[in-house]
């Protein structure tokens, strides 16, 4: 990794390390002023370096880390002043608040400030969620939202007598994991202290509106925790409550009420504050703070672009994750209003804008339920609605969260439910959040028995095939999983330069499709790996290697005719972005051998933790066109 030798334009040396003893429940004037100065400095820094993510195109999250600066700075002072009382780690179960971890690593001397200028960029070791062992100064991996509290219960058990803090949120508290963790913490008298940013904002809305009966404070009190609630921006009250929590044994929740992004004009109280601040708003904020050098740096950033030209695909790119919603609306539009209300229910998990459900919400709100960050419950509700013949639930979330729903998927299968599921953000492409948000184990959805209720997995290759797929399977019974990527994909073309899945194309579930014929062997691929494989095939043909390409949009069904065809070819190469251990390639070789077919066989897939960035993830995993070409030449050379 190369870091440009540019000085961080905000003087982090102005941070004044402060040691505070929580036995003292109030601040002196000097301590208060030092805290205020440190808080403002850190908030300026977070706005600035997260905005570099907006300027460079890798995105990020500003509001969460910005909100929680006051409590983090007080924690830092506690750790410095009475370290023997604490496990001195800023555990945080909202992984998107990773800017907190990077800033504190810098202030503690573990991470050069200049490295923050490369926030979330490829190979910068600053991914969108903290990863232990990857980034100097980062002391834990957060995983997905709401997964840390159960974990630190064990940390508390391993460190009796010490307080363990966990930064939480009203969003993370919606996950069922936290309810279980709360009960264990109380029952075992664990010295766990939750600091919860209760700002009434999540990705797609306001919990007070989509979960109007939900109260973080009342819920935690019901589990048996002592709750200390107050204004997170009232520094003296915040300090008093945090001191009381330390001085009181057992599990305690410090709940801080504040609007999202307090003091940032244009973001305060807005759902947009959850994501990365725009460059324009960051410039406006930093100018008001007199941070001229930071403003100039932001204005100088040029967004890097993917310049590779992919052969075999058009220059028209589309977002399959959004087209899913558009295609569903197309089907629903042919139903009467009464029929829609009776037969279809769409349940969101706070990701409607990311998974394409917003189009359905906007068009047919009467069948749409905006729900919270409760993937297991929401999936099961959709399945329960679809238990009756002729009815179906529609559910969507990120592919990484599919693993959280395996038991519920089994239950839905045993109850013969009809569920159309869209799991977006499959694979690794454009995934600066990195490893914990990779959608790699999607094949886990097909976890039934051979005689079980039908489950089908689909991964369309472009927007045309996505539309055709939804049209073909919408009214089918059973569990149907459609996958899409976070990234846009180009339209796949035939040999004449026409859209392969364009006018006249009909999607046939279970059928593999010839994209290019070849005599020397076949590549089998799907989803966003298909257009990269097609580019490799076209370039190999230009070099005189006649390699074919097969699209396998139905991932878990064997097309007997096609497998016989490719099984008699000299070689078969599976190319996918799924986990090498659990993806298509891990089972396709067995399918071949079971039929007495034994071509030379190889398998490329995701096999190591990510590098951050966007399109850079593909070459890093060795599944880009160059890597595919090299693998084919290795296979052909050995014939």
Automatic annotation (TrEMBL):
Keywords attached to this entry: Transferase
This protein's record includes keyword Transferase: yes
EC class: transferase
Full protein name: Transketolase domain protein
Species name: Nostoc punctiforme (strain ATCC 29133 / PCC 73102)
InterPro entries listed in its UniProt record: PDH/Transketolase, THDP-binding, Transketo_C/PFOR_II, Transketolase-like_Pyr-bd, Transketolase_C, Transketolase_N
Record domain Transketolase-like pyrimidine-binding: where: 318-491
A GO molecular function held by the record: 1-deoxy-D-xylulose-5-phosphate synthase activity
